[in-house]
Write a structure and sequence with these properties.
- By secondary structure, this protein is α+β, with helices and mostly antiparallel strands.
- The chain has two domains: about 40 residues, Arc Repressor Mutant, subunit A; about 70 residues, Lrp/AsnC effector binding domain/regulation of amino acid metabolism (RAM) domain (Alpha-Beta Plaits, 2-Layer Sandwich).
- The protein is built from five helices and four strands, in the order αααβαββαβ.
- The chain has a four-stranded antiparallel β-sheet with strand order 2-3-1-4.
- The longest helix is centred in the first third of the chain and has 13 residues.
Length: about 150
């Protein structure tokens, strides 16, 4: 297992940018108590070493996505990796994960309406070769939805 490469200053920069991704280097430096040049150096290293990146996230509810479904998928007759690759091509699918457990895959699907969600599940995902069964669960309330970590690749 590799050792952590984040310094205490890196961690402070990341925490501040999580709260306000548009914070300037000057403001970061002021709040942490280091020079603006030091902040720039840390940000450059975080980027170059692929330890962190700053991204803009769409507020899904504000953009009209009112439905989120977590779906367990059982695969038969095809490698789960191949089925996952096919599912990943569908725009409404936000996450595709190969898992060890009751299901072979777990996915998250976003939709603006129940009709759109049904169409994605039945007409697009359900017709992919190798899908034996799907178990969708519609989110009724999201208690925590944070993107603190870069997705595994």
């Amino acid at each position: 297992m590799s050792e952590a490469k984040l310094t205490p200053i890196d961690e402070q920069i990341i925490a501040l940018l999580r709260a306000d991704g548009l914070m300037s280097n000057l403001e970061l430096a002021r709040r942490i108590g280091v020079s603006e040049r030091s902040v720039a150096r840390h940000l450059r290293r975080l980027d170059e070493e692929k330890l962190a990146k700053v991204v803009l996230m769409l507020d899904l509810a504000a953009d009209g996505y009112d439905f989120l479904a977590a779906v367990g998928i059982k695969v038969k007759g095809r490698p789960p990796e191949d089925v996952a690759d096919d599912i990943a091509l569908i725009e409404e699918v936000q996450i595709v994960i190969l898992v060890a457990g009751e299901y072979d895959l777990e996915i998250q699907v976003l939709a603006r309406s129940l009709g759109e969600l049904t169409a994605v599940l039945e007409d697009r995902i359900g017709r992919i070769e190798g899908i034996m069964a799907m178990a969708p669960g519609i989110a009724t309330r999201i208690s925590k939805h944070e993107y603190q970590w870069v997705p595994f690749t």
